[in-house]
């Protein structure tokens, strides 16, 4: 009898842990007239005024976070964008300096340590990206930024370490499209 009760308790615990750790399998398309992206359903859309590399501006957000402190392999999917005045992108040299400044400002949101960024391209537009993977933390942060059509887009994923997340992360980043 004791063995049977132990078995039932173990099965129940496994069921609870599995159901709490399941990632939201429903994904939806978000965006506006300028971009679209696919991310977990239930994302919040909002804006707030913040200091950007271009001065104080309204920054528009589409953000998904788990609703509770459930065991989840993801902590955040987010796209934000803000206006990028044409004077910052007038030529290739200014554009590259703006991208470098912008990604360096974003790195400081996560660490004061040196994090290497890479030049990237999204939909044919130049950008920058970095991965923040601190050895003593259980999360990995991936940030990609691109400037297109006088807007700076910032795509961010924060995922727990040691979970199979490549498919969802790839789907998120690869679904991002600049529409005009």
Structural key phrases:
single chain; 180 residues; alpha+beta; 7-stranded antiparallel beta sheet; 3-stranded antiparallel beta sheet; 3 helices; globular
Tell me the strand order in the biggest sheet.
3-4-5-9-8-7-6
The low-pLDDT segments are 4-24
- Shape, principal axes of CA atoms: globular
Classify the beta-strand content into a percent band: 35-45%
Chart the SSEs and their pairings.
Elements: H1 2-21, E1 27-31, E2 35-40, E3 44-52, E4 55-64, E5 74-83, H2 92-107, E6 117-122, E7 125-132, E8 139-148, E9 151-160, H3 166-175, E10 177-178
Antiparallel strand pairs: 1-2, 2-10, 3-4, 4-5, 5-9, 6-7, 7-8, 8-9
Could you explain how this protein is built, in words?
The protein is α+β, with helices and mostly antiparallel strands. The chain contains three helices and ten strands. Strands 3-4-5-9-8-7-6 form a seven-stranded antiparallel sheet, sandwiched between helices. A three-stranded antiparallel sheet has the order 1-2-10. It is globular and about 40 Å long. The protein starts with a helix and ends with a strand.
Describe the structure in brief:
The chain has 180 residues and is α+β, with helices and mostly antiparallel strands. Helices cover 26% and strands 42% of the residues.
């Amino acid at each position: 009898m004791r063995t049977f009760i132990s078995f039932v308790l173990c099965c129940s615990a496994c069921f609870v842990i599995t159901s709490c750790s399941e990632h939201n399998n429903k994904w939806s398309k978000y965006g506006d007239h300028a971009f679209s992206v696919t991310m977990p359903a239930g994302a919040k859309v909002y804006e707030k005024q913040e200091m950007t590399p271009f001065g104080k501006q309204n920054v528009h957000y589409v953000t998904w976070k788990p609703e509770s402190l459930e065991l989840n392999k993801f902590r955040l999917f987010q796209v934000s964008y803000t206006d990028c005045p044409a004077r910052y992108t007038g030529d290739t040299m200014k554009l590259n300096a703006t991208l470098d400044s912008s990604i360096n400002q974003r790195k400081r949101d996560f660490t004061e340590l040196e994090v290497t960024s890479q030049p990237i391209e999204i939909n044919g537009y130049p950008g920058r990206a970095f991965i923040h993977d601190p050895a003593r933390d259980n999360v990995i942060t991936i940030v990609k930024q691109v400037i297109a059509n006088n807007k700076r887009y910032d795509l961010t994923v924060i995922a727990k370490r040691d979970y199979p997340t490549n498919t969802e992360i790839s789907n998120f980043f690869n679904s991002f499209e600049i529409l005009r």
